[in-house]
Design goal:
Length: 172
Amino acid sequence: MSRVTTSSALWSAFRDRTAALGDLTALAAGGHEVSFAALWQQAERLATALLAAGVRERTVIGLSLPNSHRFVATLLALCRIDATVALLSPQYGRVELGPIVAGAGVDCIVTDARGVERISASQPITRAARADVLEVLFTGVTPLDQPAAVLKFSSGSMREPKGIALYAENVL
């Protein structure tokens, strides 16, 4: 049996398992509810906007958003374009971001308006673009060939954060 590694497998699996749920609530956060249908529409729209902003398929993309419906929709959008998603805590600063971006070969970081200043102060940015309601900050780092679906990082409380590669089969 071949190993299911890419994030597009997550997109397909989650879509297949929830497509029939339509108007049922998928997420409830901060007093805001999102149906499965609306979540998938938002993820499709974000995927198109991210590609238009210059995000490249099958590269490592940092995702730095607080926990919210927008985080989930953006994660799904990145899976739609088959990116390896590097989860970057919104609390990460220079100490954490530098080693992660360089070590994982993060091509760009997707964030919101609040994250732009923090990330720009912590990491050299070669250019920026807007994708729908999100900001895309390009790092200029040479992307690595990453077969994982998601990269999670330890807190780095004792040293630099350590990366943990999760393949689609692990997440599923």
